[in-house]
Design a protein that fits this description.
three-stranded antiparallel β-sheet; 2 domains; single chain; globular; alpha+beta; about 15% strand
Length: about 240
């Protein structure tokens, strides 16, 4: 695939761009080839649950697990198919997991950038990705960034990705390496919820860092909330020094 080019404009939530993608457009499905598709913890949960797979089964069949070069945090990325570099979830009619597709697929043709400014205040900007194969940019369909987010069902993705992003930001500002036990706990809380649930059921370690018994009992019945607790647990334990400041 051609390397993407970012439009020079920095868009806010109420800025307008023009784009449409639909079955029948000449480039349909071309964006699903040779993609570096990294899954956030929430992406991972949605996709593996849609496929009815355990974490271990999903990674064995569809993904690669490695440590990020910059963050040194566990990373899960979808393996493209070897024969044609297509996404393994692509079918002739389109995405087979479309209702649970990852955030990057939903956000396209936008890219979302978040961070903190020099004063430590969070910011959020969007830029348009332009690829030569994509004809959706020529469709005269104006839409605001805010409307696109709602239309594509991105709200829960951004909520969880921002929570995970806080952990990534904290890791980038740590002045020590993570231990093997810490890396295992991060992987378990983010991606291996089947292994994380028994830890939560014991309760003691979670009560000790401020989670209530009612909160713990509630998350045991809901994997999405279990993931939320896991991310917050990491903030209160491994990365507590950053978040206490």
């Amino acid at each position: 695939m051609d390397q993407p080019v970012f439009d020079h404009r920095k868009l806010g939530l109420d800025d307008v761009f023009e784009f449409s993608c639909f079955p029948g457009i000449s480039c349909y499905n071309l964006c699903c080839y040779d993609v570096n598709l990294v899954l956030s913890p929430y992406d991972f949960l949605r996709v593996r649950r849609a496929l009815g797979l355990s974490s271990e089964e999903f990674i064995a069949r569809f993904a690669e697990l490695y440590l990020g070069d910059v963050t040194q945090l566990p990373v899960v990325a979808v393996k493209m198919q070897q024969h044609d570099f297509s996404c393994p979830f692509l079918r002739p009619e389109g995405c087979s997991i479309y209702p649970d597709r990852p955030a990057s697929c939903r956000t396209y043709p936008l890219a979302r950038f978040t961070g903190r400014d020099e004063e430590g205040k969070p910011f959020e900007i969007y830029r348009i990705i332009r690829e030569t194969h994509c004809k959706g940019h020529f469709e005269k369909r104006p839409i605001t960034v805010r409307e696109w987010i709602k239309e594509q069902g991105l709200e829960p993705y951004y909520e969880f990705n921002d929570l995970f992003g806080e952990i990534v930001f904290a890791r980038q500002h740590m002045d020590r390496p993570l231990s093997a036990d810490e890396l295992d706990l991060i992987y378990t809380a983010c991606y291996a919820l089947e292994k994380f649930r028994p830890l939560v059921e014991k309760k003691e370690g979670f009560l000790a860092v401020g989670f209530s018994e009612e909160e713990i009992n509630r998350v045991l019945e809901d994997e999405t909330e279990l993931l939320r607790l896991g991310l917050n647990f990491l903030k209160r334990t491994i990365f507590r020094e950053f978040f206490e400041n």
